[in-house]
Amino acid sequence: MTPLDRSSDRAIYRQIADDLRADITAGVHGPGDRLPSESELVARYGVNRRTVQHAFALLIAEGLVYSEHGSGRFVQGRPPVRRLASDRFARRHRRAGKAAFTVEMEQAGRAYDPASDVEMLDLRTGSAPEAIAARLGLSGADKVLVRARRYVVEGLPLQIATSYVPLDLAEGTAIMSADTGPGGIYARLEESGHRLTRITEDLAVEVAAEPVQRLLRLPVGAPVIHLIRTAFAGERAVEVCDTHLNATAFELSYELPAR
Amino acid sequence: MTPLDRSSDRAIYRQIADDLRADITAGVHGPGDRLPSESELVARYGVNRRTVQHAFALLIAEGLVYSEHGSGRFVQGRPPVRRLASDRFARRHRRAGKAAFTVEMEQAGRAYDPASDVEMLDLRTGSAPEAIAARLGLSGADKVLVRARRYVVEGLPLQIATSYVPLDLAEGTAIMSADTGPGGIYARLEESGHRLTRITEDLAVEVAAEPVQRLLRLPVGAPVIHLIRTAFAGERAVEVCDTHLNATAFELSYELPAR
DNA sequence: GAGTGGTCTAGACCACTCA
DNA sequence: GAGTGGTCTAGACCACTCC
C-alpha cells in the first residue's frame, strides 16, 4: 500500500484506485479474489466511505472489478477467450453435422452441448427489421422466419443470435423447428439446393443496452460486438444472422484478400 | 419529465437517469447539446446534488454523456462510422499509390491527408514483443523495424498503429523512412519482390488502458478494438501491424469462405 | 446477527469556464 | 464573478449474504 498524498493534484479516490489497480495487475489479488471491504479501506486510508466507493466505481467502470451486494467486491477475471476462426463456416463442418458455433467451442476445448446450452428466445414467422430486410433484398412486409437464441457456455451467456430466413426458404424444412438438425440452418439450406457461395460479416462495437445487457449478464457500460452475418447462395441472400457477443469473451480471426 | 416514484424499487438516481436517457434517445437533447445542470435537476426533482451526480455517472458509463468541468454535461455524439471493407488491402489500391487507410477514408468521404493526419510516435529498429515476434517467425532477439503512428481524422484520433517489419526486409527501402511513399509499406515490400499472398486479422475488444486511452482521447471504460494484422508473402510473415482503434468509430466488414 | 455493499441527504471547499 | 462540475466529509437507513 502506498500512503496517500493529500497535497497531490491527483484526487484521493484516484490514488486509492491506483493502489488497488496496481495490486490487481501485480497479481496480489487474482481473478475472483475478494478485495478489501469498504470499512477496511476506510480504516486503512483514513478516508470517508464515499471516497472508497468512488475509487471502486472507477475500477468497475474499467472492467477490473465487480460488486456483489452483501458479499463484497471481487477481481473480474476475463472470461476465457473463445476464438472464432475464419474457416468456421467451411462446408466440411456442415457435412460433418456440426454447426459453426459447435465447431468453435470444440476447438476451444469447451464443454458445450447445443441441446442444453442453447435457449430459444423467440421462434416465429413475421417481418424483419428494415436493416435486415434490406440485406435480404426483401421489403419490410415480406415474411421471414425469426429465430432468436441465447448461447450459454459453462454457465456464461456468450451470445444472443437472431436469424432471419425468407419464409419460402424455411418452409417445409427443419429450419422451422426448434432443433434444426445436424449442421444447423446452413446444412438445411444446402440440402434444399441453396449452395452457399459467400458469407459476409459486418461488425461494430457497442456499449450494451437493455435487453442485451441483461441477457448477457453484463455490467453497465460493458462492450458488446454487434455482428451481422449475411449468407449468400449465388446472388441471393438466404439468411441474415444478427448477433450480440460478450465482447471480452471473443477473439475473432479473419482472412483478407491481398490480391 | 416523469415524476419520481419514491416508493419504487428502482433507485431515485436510476429514475433520473432513465428520464434523461429517454430524452436523449428521443432526440429532445441532440448530440453535443448541453444537458440541464446539476442545480437545475436538484430543483426539478427535489433531490440531493449527489443523487443527480450519481445519475450522470451512470449515463457517462453508458457512453451517452460526457462532462466538461466548469462548463456542463453534454450529449455524446457517436463519432461518424468509418467502414473498413474486406477488400481494403487489394493490390489495385497499392498500385494506385494508396495505402489501405487512405482508401477507406476516401470512400467514406472524409477529409484526410496522410501527410498531415498521421503522426509518427516511434520509428526505430529494435526487438519485437514476444507475441509479435512469434507471428513473424522470429526470436525475441531478432531485429525489426518498429513504426508507431497515430491517425487523426477531422480532429478525432482514430487509431494507433504499430508496424513491425523484419529488418532484412525493411533495410534499403523507404519503409525505414517517415514517409514510406505511395501505397505504403505493402507497396514497398512488393517492389522488393515480396508479393503478398495472404493477410490475416485477429481482433479482440478491450477496455482502453493507458497510454492508448490518452492517445485516442477516450473516456474511462471506453472500448477499443485491438487488431493484429499479419501480412504473408508465401509462407513468410513479412509484416505485423498491431493496432488500437477507437471502437465506436469503426465498422468492419469481412468476407468468409462458405466452401 | 454481523458484515457487506446500495442509496440518499446535508453541507463544504475547490477548480474550471465563460462572459 | 456567477455558474458549472469535481471532490470530500459525516451520518443515516436499507437490502443482501453468509454463518
Automatic annotation (TrEMBL), chains A, B:
The alphabetical list of record keywords is:
DNA-binding, Transcription, Transcription regulation
Question: Sorted alphabetically, which CDD domains does this protein's record hold?
Answer: WHTH_GntR
Per the record's keyword annotation, is DNA-binding included, yes or no? yes
**Where in the sequence is the signal peptide annotated?**
none
Where does the HTH gntR-type domain lie?
Answer: 10-78
Q: Which GO terms describe its biological process?
A: negative regulation of DNA-templated transcription
Is Transcription among this UniProt entry's keywords? Answer: yes
Q: Name one GO molecular function term.
A: DNA binding
The record ties this protein, via InterPro entries, to: Bact_HTH_transcr_reg, Chorismate_lyase_/UTRA_dom_sf, Tscrpt_reg_HTH_GntR, UTRA, WH-like_DNA-bd_sf, WH_DNA-bd_sf
**What Pfam families does this protein's entry cite?**
GntR, UTRA
The protein in question is named GntR family transcriptional regulator
